[in-house]
C-alpha cells in the first residue's frame, strides 16, 4: 500500500471529489433533511443509495443493533473537510469527506453492514459514491444499490457475490454531512473573539455511538483498527487529531487555497476514541525535552490570559504518575488537551487529544475558585487514567462501561493527589462518590453494576449506562477492592492486565483474574476468591447496612433501602447478602486487619464495648456499606463527638452523620438520633463532617422549606453555624485573608453559605455590601472562592437591578468559570417573573449555550420559588427539551432528578405519574431510570414527612431555644 491517500477506481482524484461534493452539498443535505423529516419515505436519488422504510423488527442482520461478526476492520483512511462558514444559500454548515476502510472477511458473507448516521453519499450528476474492491486483485466487487437502515444506523451493501473468508477488501466512500451545533459526532462550536467576531470550531464527540455521524465505520468498541486521518482546513486554522501532524501542505480546491494536514497513523484503537478538530486556537506546550509532548489548546484570548498554565503545570506530573502506577509508558508520542466553548460532557478521553468544556480545563487565580481548580485536577487525572485503562485496553462492550468509568473515577483521586498533595484528595471520594451513589443505590429502582451484553443494544440504552452507579459505585467498590488487596497487590494485578491486553479488548472478569494471580503470588489472605467477593458487589444491586450489637459482638447485615415499605422485585443470586470487609476500631485503638462478614449474621470476638468505650466500624469508609449500632454505642459515639470529637477520624465523623440521617430515613433509627449528630457541629471546624451534615440537611430544606418547620429549623442552624462563621471571620482577619488549607477554604464557603441562608444578619450585610461595591465601582473585589455564594445571596436579597447587573456580567464574562458562577447565581432570585424569563432563556442558545441548558433549569428548580416554575416549564416543553437534549447522558437524568427532588406530596406524585404517562410516546431517553427513581423517592418522601414532621418541628424548636451546653445536657 502506497503512502499517499489511495483513491478508488470509482473516484476521480481526491481534491476534485471533495470540491464536487461541496458543490452538490445543498442538494445532498436537503436529502439528509428529508430523510430526517420523514424517515418512512423512500427518497429517490439518481444513482446514490436509497432509504428503505423503517423496519418492523425482523431477524434480518440490518435490523440487529450489533454488527455481524463476519468482517473485521484493519485500517481506515479518512479525509474530512469541515466548512467553517455557512453555505451562502442553505445557510447550513457542512463537512465533506472520503474514507476507505480495509477489512478482513472472517466468515464468508454477501452482506456488508457498516455504521453510518445522517451522512449522505449521493451527489446528483456524480458517480455512485460507494465502491468495493478486493485487496489482492484490486478487482471491483459489484453490489446492489446501497441503502440505509436508519433505525439501526447502517449503510447496507448487498453483494452480488460472496466475500471470502481470509481475504481482505476495501470499501471506498465519498460523503457529506452537516456540521450542526448538536454536540455529537462531527459538530460545530461557536464563540466570539475579542473583537466580537463569531468564530467557528469544528470538533467531535464520538462516544458512545457518534463516530458513525462523522464517517462510515464499524462503530463498536471491539472493532479496533488503525486510523489515518487527513483534515482539510483554511489557512490560519490548526487541525488536530489523535496522532501527531506529519505534514501540512497547501492545496487548491475549486480555486480555493487551503491547507491539508495529515496525521500519523494511530495505534489499533476504538472508533469512539477518535477526535478531529479544526480551530483558530493557539496552544502552550511543555519542555520539548520531555518525552511526551504536552500541549494545551484554547481560544487565543484564554491562552494569552494564562488560563491554560495551571493545566500545563500539572499534566506532566499526572501523566508520569500514571506511567509509574500502571508500570507502562504513555502509549502515544503526544498528549493534547483542548478547551471547547461548546461541549456536552465535562471531558472526553479521545486518545491523544482530550476534549474538555472550558470550565474543566481553564484556570485563572482571579476568577477560579479552589473548587474550580480541584475540578480541573481531578478531571485531567480521570481522562489521563483512561489513556491506558479504556484506551489501550478497552472493554469489549458498553455493558462493562462501569469498569472503565468506575476505575477512572477511583484513580482520578490518586492522580489529583499526586499533583496537589496538600488537598486531602483521597478523602473526598467519600463525599463525592460514596455518598452520592448511596443515595440512588438505596432505591429498589437501582440496578447492579453489571448488565448482560444483550441488554445494552440501542444507542439510548448505551447512553443510559453512563450513570452514577457506573461512575460512583464503580469507583467505590474498586477502592474497597484495592483496600482489601492492598494498593500494592491491586496495582500489580492491574499492570499484568494492561500488559496482556494492550491494544485488545477485555471483559471485567479478566481484571479479576489478574488481581487473583497477584493476590495468590503474594499470599494475600482472602476468605474466598476475588471473583467470589466481588460478585456480591457487582452482580447484585444495592449495599448492606451492617448492624453491630456491641453488647454481644453480634453483627448482621441487611439490604439497605431508603424506603422501608418498598418491595424489591429484582432477584439476586446472593439473596442480598454481601461478603463484607470490615475495618473497625475501639475507643482510641485503630486495629490492623480486616474482619470478614460472609453471612447474614456472625459473632465477632472482641466487637463489644461498655462503659464509655465505643466501637467504630468501616474506618475511613473504605467499605461500600453503612453501619448501625445498638443504642448504647450510638450514645457513646455521640458523647465522644460532643466531648472530644477528634478521637474519631474525620472521615468517620462525616460518616456517622451520613449514616445516622440515612438510617433514620429508612426508619432504622429515630430521626431525633440523626439530628443529635449535628449538635456537636458548633465545635467542628473540619470540612468533611460539615459538608456531610449540610448534604443531609439539604434534604430537610427540600422537605420543609414550604412548611412550618422552616422557621425553627433556620433558628437552630443559624445558632449552629454562628460559631463557624465567627471562627472564619477571625481566621481571615475579617474576611481579608484566605484560609491556607484547601478543605478549610471549602468550609469557609460553607460557613458563609449557611450563615446567609439561615438569615444571619451580619452575613447578609457582608454579601450585599460586597456585591454592591462591585456593581457600583465596576471592580469585582470578591475572592473567587466566595463568588458563587456571595452572588447567589446578593441576587436573592435583591431585585431586578441586581439580576440585570449579574446577567450583563454573565454575557460579557471572558472566563467560563466566572460565567458559570453567575449562571448558577442568577437562579437564586426570589422574583417569579425573572425566574420565568430566565427559564425561557434556556431555550435560546444564543443566550444560554445548549451544553448549559439543562443544568440552568436544575439551578432554578433548586430555588424554592423556582421549583414549581421549572417543573411547569419542563412539562410544557418536554418534547422540545427531549429532542434537543435527550441524547446527552448525565445531563438528562440530572434534569429529571433536579426538578423533582422536592416532591413530597400526593399531588406532586400524581403529577409525576401523569407526566410519565403523558410523555410515554415521546420518551425519557437516558432519564428513564431517573424518572422511576423520582417516583420512588417521592413516595418515600410523602411517608417520611407524615411520620417525621411533628417530632422534627419539636426538636428544632427545643434545640434552637436553648444554648448548646444546655441542649447537650438534657439529652
Ligand atoms: N468518557 C467520559 C465522557 C462521556 C460521558 C462521554 C458520557 C459520553 C457520554 C469521560 O471520561 C468522563 O467520564 N467525563 C466526566 C468527568 C469525570 C471526572 C467524571 C464528565 O464528563 O463529567
Ligand atoms: Zn471517564
Automatic annotation (TrEMBL):
GO terms for biological process: peptide catabolic process; proteolysis. Its EC number is 3.4.11.-. Keywords: Aminopeptidase, Cell membrane, Disulfide bond, Glycoprotein, Hydrolase, Membrane, Metal-binding, Metalloprotease, Protease, Signal-anchor, Transmembrane, Transmembrane helix, Zinc. Residues 43-62 are annotated as: Disordered. Its main location: membrane. Residues 73-273 form the Aminopeptidase N-like N-terminal domain. The active site is at 383 (proton acceptor). It is an enzyme of class 3 (hydrolase). It is a single-pass type II membrane protein. SUPFAM superfamilies: Leukotriene A4 hydrolase N-terminal domain (SSF63737), Metalloproteases ('zincins'), catalytic domain (SSF55486). Binds 1 zinc ion per subunit. Residues 614-939 form the ERAP1-like C-terminal domain. Pfam families: ERAP1_C, Peptidase_M1, Peptidase_M1_N. It comes from the Eukaryota. Its cofactor is Zn(2+). Belongs to the peptidase M1 family. Homodimer. This is Aminopeptidase.
Amino acid at each position: 500500500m502506497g503512502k499517499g491517500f489511495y483513491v478508488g477506481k470509482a473516484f476521480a482524484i481526491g481534491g476534485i471529489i471533495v470540491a464536487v461534493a461541496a458543490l452538490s452539498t445543498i442538494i445532498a443535505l436537503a436529502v439528509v433533511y428529508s430523510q430526517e423529516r420523514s424517515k418512512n419515505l423512500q427518497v429517490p436519488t439518481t444513482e446514490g443509495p436509497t432509504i428503505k422504510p423503517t423496519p418492523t423488527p425482523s431477524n434480518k442482520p440490518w435490523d440487529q443493533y450489533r454488527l455481524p461478526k463476519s468482517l473485521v476492520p484493519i485500517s481506515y483512511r479518512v479525509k474530512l473537510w469541515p466548512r467553517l462558514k455557512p453555505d451562502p444559500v442553505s445557510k447550513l454548515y457542512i463537512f465533506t469527506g472520503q474514507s476507505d476502510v480495509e477489512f478482513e472477511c472472517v466468515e464468508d458473507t454477501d452482506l456488508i453492514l457498516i455504521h453510518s448516521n445522517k451522512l449522505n453519499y449521493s451527489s446528483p450528476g456524480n458517480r455512485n459514491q460507494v465502491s468495493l474492491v478486493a485487496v489482492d486483485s484490486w478487482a471491483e466487487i459489484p453490489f446492489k444499490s446501497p441503502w440505509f437502515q436508519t433505525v439501526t444506523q447502517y449503510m447496507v451493501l448487498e453483494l452480488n457475490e460472496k466475500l471470502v473468508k481470509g481475504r481482505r477488501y476495501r470499501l471506498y466512500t465519498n460523503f457529506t454531512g452537516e456540521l450542526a451545533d448538536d454536540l455529537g459526532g462531527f459538530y460545530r462550536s461557536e464563540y466570539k473573539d475579542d473583537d466580537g467576531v463569531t468564530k467557528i470550531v469544528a470538533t467531535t464527540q464520538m462516544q458512545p455511538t457518534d463516530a458513525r455521524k462523522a464517517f462510515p465505520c464499524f462503530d463498536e468498541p471491539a472493532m479496533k483498527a488503525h486510523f489515518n486521518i487527513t483534515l482539510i482546513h483554511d489557512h490560519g486554522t490548526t487541525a488536530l487529531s489523535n496522532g501527531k501532524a506529519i505534514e501540512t501542505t497547501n492545496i487548491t480546491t475549486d480555486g480555493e487555497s487551503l491547507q491539508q494536514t495529515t496525521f500519523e497513523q494511530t495505534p489499533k484503537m476504538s472508533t469512539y476514541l477518535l477526535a478531529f478538530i479544526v480551530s483558530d486556537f493557539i496552544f502552550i506546550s511543555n519542555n520539548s525535552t520531555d518525552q511526551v509532548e504536552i500541549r494545551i489548546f484554547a481560544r487565543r484570548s484564554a491562552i494569552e490570559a494564562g488560563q491554560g498554565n495551571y493545566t500545563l503545570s500539572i499534566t506532566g506530573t499526572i501523566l508520569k504518575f500514571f506511567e509509574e502506577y500502571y508500570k507502562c509508558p504513555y502509549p502515544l508520542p503526544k498528549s493534547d488537551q483542548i478547551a471547547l466553548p461548546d461541549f456536552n460532557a465535562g471531558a472526553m478521553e479521545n486518545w491523544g487529544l482530550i476534549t474538555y468544556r472550558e470550565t474543566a480545563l481553564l484556570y485563572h487565580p482571579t476568577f477560579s475558585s479552589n473548587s474550580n481548580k480541584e475540578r480541573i485536577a481531578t478531571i485531567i487525572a480521570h481522562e489521563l487514567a483512561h489513556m491506558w485503562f479504556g484506551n489501550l485496553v478497552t472493554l469489549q462492550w458498553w455493558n462493562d462501561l462501569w469498569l472503565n468509568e468506575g476505575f477512572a473515577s477511583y484513580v482520578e483521586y490518586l492522580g489529583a493527589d499526586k499533583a496537589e498533595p496538600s488537598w486531602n484528595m483521597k478523602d473526598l471520594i467519600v463525599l463525592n462518590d460514596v455518598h452520592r451513589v448511596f443515595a440512588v443505590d438505596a432505591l429498589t429502582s437501582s440496578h447492579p453494576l453489571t448488565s448482560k451484553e444483550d441488554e445494552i443494544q440501542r444507542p439510548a440504552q448505551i447512553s443510559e449506562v453512563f450513570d452514577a452507579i457506573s461512575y460512583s459505585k464503580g469507583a467505590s467498590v474498586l477502592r474497597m477492592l484495592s483496600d482489601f488487596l492492598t494498593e500494592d497487590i491491586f496495582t500489580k494485578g492491574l499492570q499484568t492486565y494492561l500488559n496482556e491486553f494492550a491494544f485488545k479488548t477485555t471483559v471485567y472478569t479478566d481484571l479479576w483474574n489478574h488481581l487473583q494471580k497477584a493476590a495468590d503470588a503474594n499470599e494475600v489472605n482472602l476468605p474466598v476468591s476475588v471473583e467470589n467477593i466481588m460478585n456480591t458487589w457487582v452482580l447484585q444491586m444495592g449495599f448492606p447496612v451492617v448492624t453491630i450489637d456491641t453488647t454481644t459482638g453480634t453483627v448482621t447485615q441487611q439490604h439497605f433501602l431508603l424506603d422501608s415499605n418498598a418491595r424489591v422485585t429484582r432477584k439476586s443470586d446472593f439473596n442480598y447478602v454481601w461478603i463484607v470487609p470490615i475495618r473497625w476500631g475501639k475507643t482510641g485503638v485503630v486495629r490492623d486487619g480486616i474482619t470478614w462478614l460472609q453471612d447474614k449474621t456472625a459473632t465477632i470476638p472482641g466487637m463489644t464495648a461498655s462503659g464509655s468505650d465505643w466501637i467504630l466500624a468501616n474506618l475511613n469508609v473504605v467499605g461500600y456499606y453503612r453501619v448501625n449500632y445498638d443504642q448504647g454505642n450510638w450514645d457513646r459515639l455521640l458523647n465522644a463527638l460532643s466531648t472530644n470529637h477528634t478521637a474519631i477520624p474525620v472521615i468517620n465523623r462525616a460518616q456517622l452523620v451520613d449514616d445516622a440521617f440515612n438510617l433514620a430515613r429508612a426508619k432504622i433509627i429515630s430521626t431525633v438520633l440523626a439530628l443529635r449528630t449535628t449538635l456537636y457541629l458548633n465545635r467542628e471546624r473540619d470540612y468533611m463532617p460539615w459538608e456531610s451534615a449540610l448534604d443531609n440537611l439539604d434534604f430537610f430544606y427540600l422537605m420543609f422549606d414550604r412548611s412550618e418547620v422552616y422557621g425553627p429549623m433556620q433558628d437552630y442552624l443559624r445558632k449552629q453555624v454562628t460559631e463557624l462563621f465567627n471562627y472564619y471571620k477571625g481566621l481571615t482577619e475579617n474576611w481579608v485573608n484566605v484560609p491556607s488549607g484547601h478543605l478549610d477554604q471549602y468550609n469557609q464557603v460553607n460557613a458563609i453559605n449557611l450563615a446567609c441562608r439561615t438569615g444571619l444578619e451580619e452575613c447578609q450585610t457582608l454579601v450585599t455590601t460586597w456585591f454592591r461595591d462591585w456593581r457600583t465601582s465596576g471592580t469585582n473585589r470578591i475572592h473567587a472562592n466566595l463568588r458563587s455564594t456571595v452572588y447567589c445571596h446578593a441576587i436573592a436579597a435583591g431585585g431586578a437591578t441586581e439580576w440585570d447587573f449579574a446577567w450583563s456580567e454573565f454575557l460579557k464574562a471572558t472566563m467560563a468559570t466566572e460565567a458559570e458562577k453567575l449562571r448558577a447565581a442568577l437562579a437564586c432570585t426570589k422574583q417569579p417573573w425573572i425566574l420565568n424569563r430566565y427559564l425561557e432563556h434556556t431555550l435560546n442558545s444564543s443566550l444560554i449555550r445548549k451544553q448549559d441548558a439543562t443544568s440552568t433549569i436544575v439551578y432554578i428548580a433548586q430555588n424554592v420559588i423556582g421549583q414549581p416554575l421549572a417543573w411547569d416549564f419542563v412539562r410544557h416543553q418536554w418534547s422540545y427539551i427531549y429532542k434537543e437534549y435527550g441524547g446527552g447522558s448525565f445531563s438528562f437524568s440530572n434534569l429529571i432528578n433536579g426538578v423533582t427532588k422536592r416532591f413530597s406530596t400526593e399531588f406532586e406524585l400524581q403529577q409525576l405519574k401523569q407526566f410519565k404517562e403523558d410523555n410515554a410516546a415521546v420518551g425519557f431517553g437516558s432519564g428513564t431510570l431517573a424518572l422511576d427513581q423520582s417516583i420512588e423517592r417521592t413516595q418515600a418522601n410523602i411517608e417520611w414527612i407524615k411520620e417525621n414532621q411533628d417530632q422534627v418541628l419539636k426538636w428544632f424548636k427545643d434545640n434552637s431555644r436553648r444554648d448548646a451546653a444546655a441542649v447537650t445536657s438534657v439529652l
